[in-house]
Design brief:
About 70% of the residues lie in helices and about 5% in strands. It is mainly alpha-helical and about 280 residues long.
Length: about 280
C-alpha cells in the first residue's frame, strides 16, 4: 500500500457516504414528523402531481355535495310551501262546495266569501314570503323562475347541473280569484265555477310537487355519488402520499446507524493519514 499526503481517498469516500446518509436520514425524519411520504417535488415528482390532481377533484366533489345539499334544502322548502297551499286549496274546495248549494242566507254567503278571500290572500302571502337563505323562491311575475344545483368533479366530463322550474303559485296564476256578485258575495253559479278552478289548481300544485320531488331525488343521488367518489379519491391520495410508518422507522434506525459508522469511518480515515508523519520522525 502506498502512502500519500496530497489526497486522503478513504476520507473523501467516507465523507461522501456520510453526506448521502445524512440526507437520507433528514428525509426520513421529515416523513416521520409529517406522516407524509412526499414533502417536496424531489421526493416523488410524479406522485406529487397525481396527488395534487386527486386532491383538487376531491375538493370539487366535496363542494358539489354541499351544493346539492343546499339545492335539496331549497326544494324541500318550496315543497313545504306548496303543501300548505294545497291545504288552503282543500279548504277552498269546502267553501266553494258549500257556497254552490242554494238556500244560504246573505250572512252565510258573506262569511263564506270573507274566508275564501282570506284563503286567497294567504296563498299570495306564501308565494311572496317563502324564501331560502334570504332569496325568494317563487317568482312574483308572470314568468316562472328556475333554480339549479351545480355539481362537478373538477373535470369537464364530470359536471352535472340539475335545474328545475319553480312554479308561480299566486292565486291569479293558479286561475282562482275572488269572484263575487254585485253584493260582494260568492253566488251559487260563481261558486260552482270556482270549484272547478280550485280542483284544477290542486292538480297543478300536485304536478309541481312531483317535479320538485323528482329533482330532490336526483340531487340526493348526486350527493351520495359525490360523497363516495370524494372518499375514494381521498383514499387514493392517501395511498400515494402517506408514509408507511413501519418502513420509515426501520429506515430511520438504519440511517442512524450508518451515520454513526460513517462518522467513525471518517475519523479512522483521518487517523490513518497521520501515520505518514511517523516516517518523518
Amino acid at each position: 500500500m502506498s502512502l500519500g499526503v496530497l489526497n486522503n481517498i478513504s476520507a473523501i469516500y467516507a465523507e461522501n457516504s456520510l453526506t448521502t446518509t445524512q440526507a437520507s436520514l433528514q428525509t426520513t425524519l421529515q416523513q416521520l414528523s409529517s406522516g407524509s411520504r412526499i414533502n417536496s417535488g424531489a421526493d416523488d415528482a410524479a406522485g406529487l402531481s397525481i396527488a395534487n390532481g386527486l386532491a383538487a377533484n376531491s375538493a370539487a366533489l366535496t363542494q358539489s355535495s354541499a351544493n346539492a345539499t343546499d339545492g335539496v334544502g331549497l326544494l324541500q322548502v318550496a315543497d313545504g310551501a306548496l303543501s300548505q297551499v294545497t291545504s288552503l286549496l282543500n279548504r277552498a274546495v269546502t267553501l266553494a262546495t258549500e257556497a254552490s248549494n242554494s238556500g244560504l242566507s246573505s250572512s252565510q254567503f258573506t262569511a263564506i266569501n270573507t274566508e275564501y278571500i282570506a284563503l286567497l290572500g294567504e296563498i299570495n302571502n306564501i308565494a311572496q314570503a317563502t324564501d331560502f337563505n334570504g332569496a325568494a323562491i317563487f317568482s312574483t311575475s308572470t314568468t316562472s323562475s328556475s333554480i339549479s344545483a351545480y355539481t362537478t368533479d373538477g373535470t369537464s366530463n364530470g359536471t352535472v347541473s340539475v335545474a328545475v322550474t319553480v312554479p308561480i303559485v299566486n292565486a291569479t296564476a293558479l286561475g282562482i280569484t275572488a269572484v263575487a256578485n254585485t253584493s260582494g258575495l260568492i253566488n251559487t253559479s260563481a261558486a260552482a265555477a270556482q270549484l272547478t278552478a280550485i280542483v284544477s289548481a290542486i292538480n297543478t300544485i300536485s304536478l309541481d310537487r312531483g317535479t320538485l320531488g323528482a329533482a330532490v331525488e336526483q340531487l340526493q343521488a348526486n350527493t351520495t355519488v359525490d360523497t363516495n367518489e370524494s372518499q375514494n379519491l381521498t383514499s387514493a391520495t392517501s395511498q400515494i402520499t402517506s408514509a408507511n410508518i413501519a418502513t420509515v422507522v426501520a429506515n430511520d434506525t438504519s440511517f442512524s446507524i450508518l451515520e454513526q459508522t460513517g462518522i467513525s469511518a471518517l475519523q479512522q480515515s483521518n487517523t490513518q493519514a497521520q501515520t505518514v508523519l511517523k516516517l518523518l520522525q
